[in-house]
Amino acid sequence: MHVHFLDPYHNGTSLIHQLDPRVKLVFTLAFIVTASLLPFGAWAAYILLLAIVFSVELLSDLGIRYVLKRAFLATPFVLAAFPLIFTVPGVPLFSFSIGPWTLTVTLEGVERLLSIAFKSWVAVQMAIVLAATTSFPQLLQAMRGIGIPRLLVAIIGLMWRYIFVLADEVLRLLRARAARSGASPEIGKRVGGSIAWRARTTGGMAGNLMMRGFERGDRIYAAMSARGYDGEVRAFPLPPVPRIQWLGLGGAVIVLLLILSLGILLTR
Predict the structure, then answer these.
(1) Is 175 inside a domain boundary?
(2) Residue 59: which domain range?
(3) Band of the pLDDT at 191, cuts 50, 70, 90?
(4) Residue 45 has what pLDDT?
(5) Higher-confidence residue: 124 or 156?
(6) Are residues 129 and 251 in the same domain?
């Protein structure tokens, strides 16, 4: 059983699919940097970024709904920022007590939390569009094309490829465990032992997976070294970027700079 569902790439012929991967990568990085540099509470600038994201999603033929469903990847950033509503000083909105502690929610804290949530949300959406419209080998070539160090590109490439290998190993371990667990004829009765037994079994599976990963890594390293691998991914060079795409990228970066300037001016 292969876990191809982990690959986010969707083959297509849309305008975004046809763009050079270097152009898409540079624009995505510029967009994420712009979103991260915008000050808290710059709502007009946030709306402009959201309009850009939705426009790119429509041009990519992925659809807004497809990207929104996968944008929940931003949830950990929101959860990590949640304590800010209590820790940022400002105008108090309301207070409540938990045992001996009294927590006060401030207006500035809520504003900062919502700002972080929104910026993370639009940045993740743009990254999803990049991954869905650009194959991973093209992304690696684009990284090398814009000057990202060879070692970092090699690490990213190997990490991505062996996510699928490790996922296959996990599925084999789960299948082996299921084959050794009988099904109880009594409805609602749990099989496979107690919670403690399940915890021990899961720990053993994790250790087994780690050992298999180390052994496979040693074998792969020996095989790659024997074939002369030096950390550089050998591939046909990408064609030159069309001038019209460079001009479009320059215009898009200028728009992002204007949005950043607007956000800074609005929050002064």
Answers:
(1) yes
(2) 4-148+236-266
(3) low
(4) 94
(5) 124
(6) yes
